[in-house]
Amino acid sequence: MLASALGVTNQSVSEVIRNGRGSKRIAEAIAKVIQKDLVEVFPHYKKTDCRDKKIAELKEMLGVG
């Protein structure tokens, strides 16, 4: 059902569940459905979030963007 709701294949959802990697959109949907934080279910996304935060801080510091 989740795959249909997202407009993706069952294989895509299964791949994210099995490997913990792939589509962040699918990973976010899985976390939301099981009522958990994305990073709690897929810890490797914490690195991405930290990186994005640091980039935003640098842009602000440099007056870019």
UniProtKB/TrEMBL annotation:
InterPro entries: Lambda_DNA-bd_dom_sf. GO terms for molecular function: DNA binding. This is Ner winged helix-turn-helix DNA-binding domain-containing protein. It comes from Neisseria meningitidis serogroup B (strain ATCC 13091 / M2091).
